[in-house]
Amino acid sequence: MRVSVVGCTAMLLVAVAACGGRGGNETGTTASGPCQGQQTTGITDKSLKLGGIYPLSGPASAYGDIPKGIKAYFDYVNAEKNGIGGRKVEFVVRDDGYQPPKAVEEARRLVEQEQVFALFQTLGTPSTTATWDYTNQHKVPQVFVATGASKWGTDTQHPWTIGWQPNYISEARIYAQYLKKDKPNAKVAVLYQNDDFGKDLLGGFKRAIEGSGITVVGEQSYEVTDPSVDPQMHNLAGSKADVFLNVTTPKFASQALAADAKNTSWNPLHILNNVSASITVLKPVGLENVQGVVSSSYYKDPRDPTWNDDAEMKLYKAKMQQYAPGTDPNVPFFAYGWGVADAFAKTMSAAKCPTREGLRDAMRSLSNVQVGMLLPGVTMNTAAGDGFPIESMQLMKFKGERWELFGDVIDTRKEFGPLTG
User: What range does the record give for the signal peptide (predicted)?
Assistant: First the structure.
């Protein structure tokens, strides 16, 4: 993998100041030359400082594996590729415990004290919702947030914030399309997280099944502070639905899968949303108890032998062992982290100015950008009026000890039309 030089075109390389700004990590530093007046806080000719906010503790701590994959990628490009465009990347990670007020506190600390160039990933719809007013008011890029809420791509008031993964409404449309073909008269029970994440996917699913023979016969929500979803699962089993749509984060996904496995009198088709479709979620339940579960993906599963000879997968596994010793590269959240870090590198490399404004503009003008960890046929595209970098997914089913992809990659833009605000 080759990371190209960031920023100015060849004819501008003679003007060092144009590519490096005035230098340091002073708050409010600005560039000169062709990028005059643009923000260079957190970036110099030799360094690039990013901040990430993740639930390293609390009910969504399983996602704490993601920044480990990101750090391994940045350590690799720093050591072997001279960073991104000659700039060594420093990645500062903060823990918000999946608590929105804490996320705001950490965002302020990263921007005002650490003086990062950009927030690269804030994880979770509640945390990102709590922080995006602040980041946009301060004109700090909030790049590739780790949540599929549809508003990151449809909102026009927060141009400094953008998602990465396919949005929840499009994911819901794919499950609806699958049921329309395979179970056209399905009766569906839904467990969902009682926040913008859960409501976004559930609402998208309900709209997608309108006019079909599919009906939602049971709904139960939970709070992230709940100790268990066993009562909700008991109630949903009473609905006698033949499909169970599991819209949960990892801790509660494992609980719901376990409850489903224990209830031998209820045997629905189990659809698990993408954000919990990790082997770390399934293993505690017992792999024998999750056979046939359906989900979707857009990036390569490191456990899938399909990718054994894939150049990017071989590079990823080798560098994870080198730069993150002791980790298991077969954990999909690590692969996600590696992939989104590579996506950032390619986006930053495409920026016309190595400034906050340059990154903002680059992330909103992606054209068929290929990222090695994405599934074949899945590329990054954004444009005016389309703030969704990735909008293609493929269905998968758990068989044996791994997920198996089936069907074709579905471009939801073409299949269902674009989402609008």
Answer: 1-17
